[in-house]
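The data layer described in this paper is built around a simple, fixed record for each protein. We quote a single record here, exactly as it is kept in our systems:
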Amino acid sequence: MKVNSLGFRTDLMLRRMAGSLITAHPSHLVVRTPANPGYWWGNFVLFDAPPRQGDGARWSSVFSGEFPDAAHLALGVDGTDGDAGDASERDRLGLTTEVNTVLTATRLIPPARPDADTLIRPLTGDEDWAQAKELRFATEDGGVPSAEHRQFLEGKLAEYRRLCEAGHLTWFGAFVDGRMRAGAGLCADGGGLARFQNVETHPGYRRRGLASALVHHIGDWGLRELGARTLVIVADPDYHAIRIYRALGFADTEKQVQLHRPPVPGGDVEA
């Protein structure tokens, strides 16, 4: 199966770097991350077209056959136009539909509000990664995450650190008075694409231009140092951050469709 979606192509790029197992079938791909079975988008099935009438049962059967012990259901839809398929089939499976915007840029516009007091640099060593964990927890909706969710977040950060140490990913922090107040990663495989990961800013330091400065710095570095030709970032079309990316020169290119159902209605989800 050839993947057309730029969002999923770069997702799969990172999954391969992280050691996930990707199995191709004529109409779908199976992505499996044995080290983290509760990570939805490390353990999912990517189908080659949106669900049509009668596909729901087959899709669910394919997923349960590949992941018999999974409590979640995660299905990707390859495509570029945001078509999520037949609503009745999605409703029958109790799926939540997410259609995110894939943005790209080949050059970036400097931010309007550069912050001279901010130091932006790659993370190095235990102290930097400890600050990255503090930042990640601080950005969680609803305050302090549950113990189960903290474990999930720590596992993801550990994976990011391993990827950085292997040379597949670089994680940058924006430091104010020595404290990491914003962060993001960039990965590339030498094929011309570079994908941003987890742009986040501490709630107490938002609307100061930190995210703009950080994304511009990382993107410019990727184009210059990694030889990337196209920068890729995926964003919620209804969240304010997408305006930041557009102001820096990113343009809407595609739509990415993800369908998921949590293990327990209203329970702790690990997306």
Q: What stands out?
A: The CA atoms of residues 76 and 258 lie 5 Å apart. The first strand starts at residue 21 and ends at 24. The chain has a mean pLDDT of 92. The radius of gyration is 19 Å.
